[in-house]
Amino acid sequence: MIVLTSKQMREVEKIAIEKIGIPSIGLMENAGRETALEVKKILEEENLNSVIVISGKGNNGGDGYVVARNLYNWGVDVKVFLTTSLGAISGDAKVNLDAILNMGIYVAEITQREHLKFLEKTIKDSDVIVDAIYGIGLKGEISGITKEIIEMINQANKIVVSVDIPSGLNADTGKIEGCAVRATKTVTMQFLKPGLLVYPGVDYAGEVRVAEIGIPYRLAAEVGYNYNLVTSEDVKLPKRHGNTHKGDYGKALIIAGSKNMTGAAYLCAKSAIKAGCGLVKLAVPQSVQSVIQGGLYEVITYGLEEQNGILSHNALSSVLELIEESDVIAIGPGLTHDRDISQLVYDIVKNTDKPVVLDADALNALVGRLEVIQGKKIILTPHYGEMSRLTGLKIDEIKNNLFEVAKTFIDRYKVTLVLKGAKTVIATKEGSIYINSTGNPGMATAGSGDVLAGMITAFLAQGFSEEKAAIYGIFYHGKAGDIAKEYVGEYGMTAMDILENIPEALKCSL
Ligand SMILES: NC(=O)C1=CN([C@@H]2O[C@H](COP(=O)(O)OP(=O)(O)OC[C@H]3O[C@@H](n4cnc5c(N)ncnc54)[C@H](O)[C@@H]3O)[C@@H](O)[C@H]2O)[C@@H](O)CC1
Ligand SMILES: [K+]
Hints:
Layout: E1 2-3, H1 6-20, H2 24-46, E2 50-55, H3 59-73, E3 77-82, H4 91-102, E4 106-109, H5 113-124, E5 128-132, H6 144-155, E6 159-163, E7 185-189, H7 201-205, E8 207-211, H8 219-222, E9 227-230, E10 251-255, H9 262-274, E11 279-285, H10 289-293, E12 299-304, E13 306-307, E14 310-311, H11 316-324, E15 328-331, H12 339-350, E16 356-358, H13 361-365, E17 378-380, H14 384-391, H15 395-400, H16 402-413, E18 416-419, E19 425-427, E20 433-436, H17 448-461, H18 466-488, H19 495-500, H20 502-507
Parallel strand pairs: 2-3, 2-5, 3-4, 5-6, 6-7, 7-8, 9-20, 10-11, 10-15, 11-12, 15-16, 16-17, 17-18
Antiparallel strand pairs: 1-9, 13-14, 18-19, 19-20
Helix pairs in contact: 2-3, 3-4, 5-6, 9-17, 17-18
Residues 13, 17, 24, 27-28, 31, 56-61, 63, 134-142, 163-164, 189, 213 line the site of ligand NAX.
């Protein structure tokens, strides 16, 4: 699903209005009417009838006046409050403000502190608040009276419908600019925006509906959109044809495990099989080979040179031989990391140009020497802690600048990055950003990352590009977790529950 930044949205509107000649006031009419229809649905469902529209001074406010006009025509008790003076309104917004004034709809300014008391009382007596203060035109932080109005909206505990973007939310980053409206529902115009899809934006947007307002969809390509929300439409699994054998579905070599982390190797290898990989070979320290082989009937295991239960650099030649007869490689789950094995990981990456998934301790092994991955067919799957070690950035800096951090990393190393978090973000070497739409907090459990690494490896082994393997991997990993949640809830969910629901998740595609 296409996602546009505020800058791209403005470019699209400019082409639509100035080049194609679609009247801007028509776009505003559609935006307002689509929002009004959503409000009407809520009023009917909840058997309510009184609405307050709070409009800012720009076109987001203009949408709000159109909402008010439609609701008034449907017999709704509607009042409009401006966070600025009537005289400050111009353009399309002014045309619609004049119309509602001419219709005798109640309009009042809330520009002084003494007005706030009156607004508070009116809010208390109303059922639904329409937030039309700021949309994609927000710049910098919100302060003053408007900030107090937003805080009043949030404390009123009413149903809130935000026009285009919850006011105060940065449309591009999802950051809160001083304060932001917590919406029950957001009706966003024509295309999703990145800030609605990652935290904290997700918490403020509530349920998001994309309203069609008449802008041609093809304009998104014209402005070179590069953000996408991964939905089931994007991850259809190709049908398997009859005359195939397991070799057609790829041979993966997984290098994982150590004496006190055998489960990670198990989960990764088992997940790769479950996600359709034709043949999985699992290389582990020889002292744990029998333990791991136990539950892994479908996987061939290899016990390699080790030191005290941790793979040692002496295993390099055996690994390179195994790589010869494999299509893709995954390194990391449960490896543990110390100087010796870090050198092993470094030398494996250095000596192959086959697609490689680097997860967990394989990432830690490359801290400070990432140049070895430059331009290779490599997918890295760090969570914020691992990303912090790889980049030297603090976790909060990463969390608050997901897209920038991901893009900077990709620009530098030209690989595929899967930045795992509450909302996992993928950045590809072509500069595209994908945000996942599946998954739930139950999946924040030990081993969940090992399962994801196995799934991404499986798609790579089946011939998917790094970009597609990452996208399919995160989508179906989250989907498996969503199915698991139906059976075991979020608290009781384990990585095994996710793993066991991989087949069910994949079946959703066919
Ligand atoms: N351009 C168009 O033709 C359309 C625009 N639409 C609506 O118009 C919105 C964009 O309208 P605008 O570009 O006028 O901007 P907004 O209406 O989002 O912003 C309102 C105004 O607030 C001021 N402002 C911004 N940040 C502020 C801050 N931190 N403190 C105080 N004042 C601040 C700005 O001067 C801006 O003009 C969209 O979000 C959408 O809702 C839609 O109706 C679709 C059509
Ligand atoms: K808004």
